[in-house]
Each structure stands twice: as C-alpha cells, then as structure tokens.
Amino acid sequence: MSAEQLQAVLAAARRGAKESFGVDVEFTQPEEQSLKALFDRATPGERSDWSDLSYDFKRGKGDRKRLARGYAAAFRSDENSLDDQIAFAEPYLLAPVREKTYDGFAEAVTATLIARLDQLKSQKLSDGGELLDGSPSNEVLYWALIGKLSFPYDVVITNQLIASAEYVGSSVHTAIRGGITNGITTGNPFSPRGVTAIVSTYPVTGEDGVTRALRGGESYSEADSARYAGLLLVHEIGHQLYDLGHAYGKNACVMNPPAMLRFREWAERLSPADCRPR
User: Fold this and answer.
1) Beta 195-200 vs 183-187: how paired, if at all?
2) Is the pLDDT of residue 278 over 50?
3) Cβ contacts of residue 158 below 8 Å, gap of 6+?
4) What's the angle, vertex CA 246, arms to CA 58 and CA 255, rounded to 5?
5) For the whole model, what pTM was predicted?
6) Would residue 60 be called left, alpha or beta, if left means φ above 0 and alpha means ψ between -120 and 50 degrees?
7) Are 258 and 216 in contact (CB under 8 A)?
C-alpha cells in the first residue's frame, strides 16, 4: 500500500474503534522496517523449536494425523460451541463432516486446510516470484512469537501473506481458508501495551488466483482496500485492548471474522449499534 493508503487504513481503524468500542485510538507515524531483518533476530534454537511445531506443507513432509489432533484440541478449547464452529465453517469445507464430534470436525477442517495450502504454494506474484518462497516469513509462529524478537511496537501492518499450518492448531476461520491469517494479536513484553496487533494487507490486495477466488473473485479499489484493512485492524484491537473472542455468526459485530476473504460482504453487514461485545 502507498503511504496515502496506509494513512487511510489508520483513519478507518480510528473510526471503527470509536464506533465498535467507544474508544479514541491514536497511532504514531508509521515506520517501515525490513521483514528479513526482523526475523533474522530469531536464534537457531528458536527457529528449530518453531519448525518442530509447524506442518511442513512446502515439502509435503508434515504429519497429517498430528495436525488433525492439534486442531481438534484447539476447537475443544474455543469459547464457541462445536455446533457454532461447524455452522460457521461447513459452507466452505472441501470435505464433509462425517461425524459431529471435535475429532470428526477436525478431520474435515484439516483436509480443507491442506488442500488450500497446496493451491497457495503453486501461486506466483505479479513479478513472477513465488508467493510462498523458502523463507519463514509466511509462517504464523514467527509472527505469533514476535514478542521474542525485541520488537517495540503495538501495531504492525505487513504486506506479507501469512499462511501456514501448525500442530498446535488455530481458529477455524483461519484453517478453512488455507491457513491464511488476516491478523494476529500476540503478547509482546517489548511493546508499550505488552500486546502487538498484526494485520496483513495481502488478503485484501493480493491478486494471485487462489486469494482472489477466496475473495469471491473480487479485486478492490485502493479506497476499499484501505477501509477493509482498517476494519481488520479494529478486529485485532478488540482482541488487543479488550480480550474479546470471535463472535461467530454475529454478522453485525466486527469480532465476527470474515467468511473466507469476502471482505466487502463482511464490511457491509457490520452494524456496531446492533452488536454487544462478547
């Protein structure tokens, strides 16, 4: 995004935070930093530990049964009921839920996750480069554990696609879209608030075939892209400042995650006046 778009993202986030949470949020002037330089701070031991927790979809060497067990455990610990999670995910699954148990649901979600990750790893960028290269920049754990990298910021906006699978599982809305993460909120003792909210703009702006298909075939204008990214930041601020969970199925609420990457549909349904935080 251009500097002007980035300012529009932050303006949309300020408006959205006021509308949804009644809070006045201010941002410092954005600073641009190298992603490689940041992740190069990870020690060899940290890299090894994080690799052991990540499903190796790039080389096709992951343990699928272990992955399914991790997702079943994550779904059990989610504050939303199994029925609510299935209702949210079922229209987008590529495999049926053969039995309505956490294990049965995890099998269907895992099959969908792996299939969509396999599609993503074949995609190219507009310059012909690999969408997912050999670097760990797409790996969720590198972002989720950013607090170990002496990173003193409350908010991060990145153009890097964050998409991966971890044996510790993740939220169902992330898994069904192929592990694509729109945002992460994670503990960070080096940031002023002790928590960092991260938003990836790639799901909004990326033009590879898989990402565009997950958006329902849409490409957005610069103004719409900035607005939707700003609303994603509002969602993360809800996690960051108020420890709010995901309000699956509550379409009026910004804490209800977008279905797949259909940001226009998601944004048009938001109505803060009709939403009560969970």
Assistant:
1) antiparallel
2) no
3) 35, 198, 199, 200, 201, 202
4) 105
5) 0.93
6) left
7) no
